[in-house]
Amino acid sequence: MLYKDLVNTYIELEKTSKRLEKTYLISEFFKSTPKDDLPVIALLIQGRLFPAWDERETGVASRLILKAINVATGVSVDSIEKRWKKTGDLGIAAEEIIKVKKQGTLFSKELTVSKVFDNLRKLPELEGKGTVDKKIQLISELLLSAKPMEARYIIRTILNELRVGVGDGSVRDAIVWAFFSKEIGFSYDKKENNFDVKDREKYNHYAEAVQHAYDLTNDFSDIVLAVKKEGLDGLKDIALKPGRPIKVMLALKVDDVKEGFEKVGKPAEVEQKYDGFRIQCHKSGNKVILYTRRLENVTNQFPDVVSYVKSNVEGDSFIIDSEAIGFSPKTKKCLPFQKISQRIRRKFQIERMVKEFPVEVNVFDVMSYNGKSLLKEPLKERRKLLEKVVREQKRKIVLAKKIVTSDPKEAEKFFQESLKEGNEGIIMKKLDSVYKPGARAGNWIKYKPVMETLDLVIVGADWGEGKRARWMSSFTVACRDDKGDFLEIGKVGTGIKEKEEQEGVSFKQLTGLLSPIIISEKGKSVKLKPKIVVEIRFEEIQKSPTYSSGYALRFPRLVRIRDDRGHDECSTLKMVEGFYKGQRK
Ligand code: AMP
């Protein structure tokens, strides 16, 4: 396939901000892509050279690209830089330069998708002496043959900034629309930007199957090829593979133990909810790889965890799920997540970090063991296996503390004990539940102490997109300091209703209240007179450099409009600080 065909699709994608139209463009493009090119296209369409979880990066800085453009076109680095400054996009700068370059010397060969992909995939592999020159050569070779628009996207791909706005959901739907269109009776109306399917149930079934395959692999390449070759049957062979991360299972929230039992049934497994961070540990042969909840590879940052997994968990290959918590090396007491979070991004002085901020791994699940997927096994069996294969060592690696009970009083007591030990609360789990990657399916329930709410003033907002375009849809909220100045503390977009008939505050209602008090508008954002006070519930307060208050709310949710309160009666910075300290006791 020629690279220009892909570029034409990029251009179309860039022209529209409508998700459905984008999805349709991708699905049509998938249909016209030859089988052998499909896996590569599935990555490149999102500007990826590797699946999202793969840590390899091109390692190419803008400076090096300037040089590569210079080598390919003969235009001086200085004037390329000027153009770059003017356009703010190195891809567009390259495009413009190639446009004005005389035609004869350039455009020698038509670029193919695989040529571009192969050259770019070689970039992370290069190491040692002469690396810079080799990288310049790989890029300039492409630019020498590239048409202006091709240069734009090659450069953006290298920089990992494709800017065509294609999310995972669009690719998933595009796969269904492209390869199952007959089965589901699919049609798309461009004018109305609407799609229709004759068999909705079947459509949901296919979409779920593709999503499930993606939850297991986090890589559309294998999926698109399997579906093209064998339809739905192809997805059956897509399996867990130690080394390749899967989406983690998530928990729904409840307000008390009783509601928890209603969701997960009796008896239930009740586990401590640790205030750490998720680590998915993969072992294959002698190799251990660690991923975070967002599927970032953090193996290098946690050599301590790697060694505990190697020495304390029996088995040749497996995937286990756990929460790592920090503890003080002196007192051995648990530390809140924020204290150890710096280890996640740390690239240097790792050994020092291991000593200063040690962690304990609390294992609570196993998804695959010695070549067998356990996703469909009931939780109690998975736990039994863990009890057999994990050799517990306190402050290194242990199993999550749990009880199995039908008694709300006993669960409540366990909850209180968990809090006393410095944990966040409890997680209640259905005993015979499967492990559902990526899902908040209601088989796991989290129960934490309810925080109080804050009354905050709305000081800014963003206009929405798509069907929310007429409404303001995201609201910047602020508290007040001693002097009466308003300090931002977060953005809220949840807890607000789309439809007027529903109970609660609607987007329309808020937009109506806020429109008359707009001070200024810039792009989609508006600044507002601090007037409207809203009650905001949240799960946690964190320190944050993003907002002027120095704090940010985790999972904020709008409860109601406090029209009984004036802006000078909103919560103060002192209250925020008080909450922050209180939650850390
Ligand atoms: P939340 O981050 O509030 O949505 O709570 C869910 C998170 O709690 C999970 O993603 C885990 O990182 C963490 N967690 C702590 N203890 C457990 C446990 N025993 N079982 C499952 N998840 C846990």
Structure characterization notes:
The longest helix has 18 residues, at about 200-215. It is globular and about 75 Å long. Among the domains are: about 250-445, DNA ligase/mRNA capping enzyme (D-amino Acid Aminotransferase, Chain A, domain 1); about 455-585, Beta Barrel (OB fold (Dihydrolipoamide Acetyltransferase, E2P)), CATH 2.40.50.140. β9 and β10 form a beta hairpin. It is of the alpha+beta class and about 575 residues long. The chain contains 23 helices and 23 strands. α4 (about 60-75) packs across α8 (about 130-145). Helices cover about 40% and strands about 20% of the residues. The termini are far apart. The structure holds adenosine monophosphate. Adenosine monophosphate binds near residues 251, 271 and 274.
Keywords:
585 residues; alpha+beta; D-amino Acid Aminotransferase, Chain A, domain 1; OB fold (Dihydrolipoamide Acetyltransferase, E2P); 7-stranded antiparallel beta sheet; 23 strands; binds adenosine monophosphate
Blueprint of the fold:
Blueprint: H1 3-15, H2 19-32, H3 38-44, H4 62-73, H5 77-87, H6 90-100, H7 113-122, H8 131-145, H9 148-158, H10 168-179, H11 181-184, E1 186-189, E2 194-197, H12 200-217, H13 220-230, H14 232-236, E3 252-253, H15 257-264, E4 268-273, E5 277-284, E6 287-291, H16 303-312, E7 317-327, E8 334-335, H17 337-340, H18 342-345, H19 350-356, E9 359-369, E10 372-373, H20 379-389, E11 397-399, E12 402-405, H21 408-420, E13 425-430, E14 444-447, E15 454-463, E16 472-480, E17 486-492, H22 507-514, E18 518-522, E19 525-528, E20 533-537, E21 540-543, E22 551-554, E23 557-561, H23 573-583
Parallel strand pairs: 3-14, 9-11
Antiparallel strand pairs: 1-2, 4-12, 4-13, 5-6, 5-7, 7-8, 7-9, 9-10, 13-14, 15-16, 15-19, 15-20, 16-17, 18-19, 20-23, 21-22
The protein binds adenosine monophosphate.
